[in-house]
Amino acid sequence: xxxxxxxxxxxxxxxxxxxxxxxxxxxxxxxxxxxxxxxxxxxxxxxxxxxxxxxxxxxxxxxxxxxxxxxxxxxxxxxxxxxxxxxxxxxxxxxxxxxxxxxxxxxxxxxxxxxxxxxxxxxxxxxxxxxxxxxxxxxxxxxxxxxxxxxxxxxxxxxxxxxxxxxxxxxxxxxx
Length: 176
Fold this sequence. Notes:
Blueprint (H helix, E strand, L loop, with lengths): L1 H11 L3 E7 L4 H17 L14 H13 L2 E10 L5 E10 L5 E9 L8 H16 L5 E3 L7 H9 L17
Parallel strand pairs: 4-5
Antiparallel strand pairs: 1-2, 2-3, 3-4
Helix pairs in contact: 1-4
């Protein structure tokens, strides 16, 4: 995992910083993170199905973190920030058990279109998985999902050792 992160660093290190956070990200990053999280479904390739961005507020985000903590779950989030502008360029997150659990989920991963092509997706995911593994008391099954037509993310997930185990079709009812 460290090798993949180090290899990717050559493509982004001069333009971005990558940081990992346990629990909530710093307050000044919460609004931009909520915006990215809300864009995830609309940005991810879904074929002919069009999804709209979701509205997620910092208060919603903090409540979600509090709920996860109350359940005994860890939330680990890794951010990519463009050095020049200070703006958030991408994120990924894992939620899973802090002690004794057997499953964790690699949730949303999004790199904004203007920042793609710099290996940020692999950097975000490897840094996040590495940190999560350090914080848990034993190995657990890490799951993730993505659309088949999202070739860049499928390639990253393949590289990280994820394997497809089920298919869930996305259906849309058309109003005629």
